Amino acid sequence: MPLKLPDKLPAIEILKGENIFVMDTSRATSQDIRPLRIVVLNLMPLKITTETDLIRLISNTPLQIELKLMKLRSHTSKNTPVEHMRVFYKDFEYLRDEKFDGLIVTGAPLEQMQFEEVSYWDELTGIFDWARTHVTSTLFICWAAQAALYHYYGVPKYPLEHKMSGIFRHTTINEPVPIFRGFDDEFWAPHSRHSEVRRADIERVDGLKILSESDEAGVFLVSGRGGREFFMTGHMEYSPLTLDTEYRRDLGKGMDIDMPKHYYRDDDPTKQPLDRWRAHANLFYSNWLNYYVYQETPYNLQEIG
Length: 305
Hints:
By secondary structure, the chain is α/β, with parallel strands linked by helices. It is built from ten helices and twelve strands. Helix 1 (10-16) packs across helix 3 (47-58).
């Protein structure tokens, strides 16, 4: 089944060129089926890039999905065209009375700030609280995962001496968990962050469960409320060239930055990156949508609570 997207969203033509099946609103309305309603709170600066990365993954399932894009009233994006934001994004205030099958909250380049110093912290935590009564399952990514763990459970974050950047090997919990159904014993996933959460703090919280870790990158995936919340410290949605773009951007700014680990062929930045996480990334999002959203959400959205 395809993903139902707003007419003329830039990602549509990009993904059609990658042979990914997407459907605009005009065509989807002719089908007699209730699509899953997924809303994305996109906190990343380059919003079109992030939209495309996420849509590439959530469209690769047999489920029809209706996608909404949410933005914050208290923050104005400086790196995305104003017209794009006006046409495709809605303030939280316009969506607060609606209910959704799933919510994705992206990361943001804010790891080096204290949470309370973030200008939109109050609005963001209001959305976190709203999600618990208006969304069946929420996926928090990278900084958003750290922010939500802190807001909901008081789990602190810690600054890293060097940025965690690269593709790292992970293991999964040694018990059957639907989110990892079909996974190998080990898998690779990208990380790109300046801070971390730690196992000891998470283990002290009743109701939180560490599902995946990396010897090098630490805690990767945590679940809460029986799968109604997932906290991912990495970026499985990243495209093959995203870390390369970030690395060269930071070098261009004169930053003292390490080369992404386990990323370039032969660890040589003049060579192409080695893409070794895309299959598991597709499987992860498919499992989340199927087992924690589609299988758990009521047909009548108003019953979510």
